[in-house]
Amino acid sequence: MASQDNTHRLYGVPHSLYTGIARCYLRTQGITYTEIPTTDADFHTRILPIIQRSIIPVLETPQGDIVQDSLDIIDHFEQQGVQYSAYPDGLLQRVLSVIIAYYGTQAMLPHAMHYRWSYREAQEGFLHDQFAAGAGEAMADKIMSRMNAYLPQLGVDAHTVPEIEASYLQL
Ligand SMILES: N[C@@H](CCC(=O)N[C@@H](CS)C(=O)NCC(=O)O)C(=O)O
């Protein structure tokens, strides 16, 4: 659906790590956007059939193009030329920037998920409130259970938790 003006639509929720990456980039570049929660009917009727997976963030351009994945969203704008490129000019700096981005978005994911879900009792109220705000009361517990269940796949278990916490504190 092409929008009437130049406003991009960012489907995401406030507490989502990867939505934060896309939102930060849009704000830095001064790109006009509206953030839309996944409770929005459009996300279910138009976006999900295209991306075929319940995942955020998703960008919809004013022309109606759909871009899914925070780094693909960044690259979508980089290809058009932006005022503050996320990629430095120097080759060495460019390689380092990719490593740092990888470190932050992938290598630190077990840490982020551990601190969010392993101490669930201490922050159940916050988590439920945020997931209900973003995905609706009916879906909140279901999505929370799914996200919580990712911990073993991410290598977060009784043996690795001390190392994860130590490396986080060292960082
Ligand atoms: N590589 C993706 C990761 C996106 C991602 O994992 N998003 C989370 C929310 S922060 C999600 O929607 N997860 C749903 C799921 O994996 O079930 C990106 O950079 O956009």
Provide an overview of this structure.
The protein has helices spanning 17-29, 41-51, 70-78, 91-107, 109-117, 120-135, 137-148, 161-170; strands spanning 8-11, 33-36, 58-60, 66-68. It folds into two domains: 8-78, Glutaredoxin; 108-170, no CATH class. The protein has a four-stranded mixed β-sheet, sandwiched between helices. The longest helix is centred in the middle third of the chain and has 17 residues, at 91-107. The chain is α+β, with helices and mostly antiparallel strands and 171 residues long. Helix 1 (17-29) runs parallel beside helix 3 (70-78). 57% of the residues lie in helices and 8% in strands. The protein is flat. Glutathione is lined by residues 16-18, 55-57, 69-71, 146.
Set out the fold topology:
Blueprint: E1 8-11, H1 17-29, E2 33-36, H2 41-51, E3 58-60, E4 66-68, H3 70-78, H4 91-107, H5 109-117, H6 120-135, H7 137-148, H8 161-170
Parallel strand pairs: 1-2
Antiparallel strand pairs: 1-3, 3-4
Helix pairs in contact: 1-3, 6-7
The chain binds glutathione.
Summarize the structure.
By secondary structure, the chain is α+β, with helices and mostly antiparallel strands.
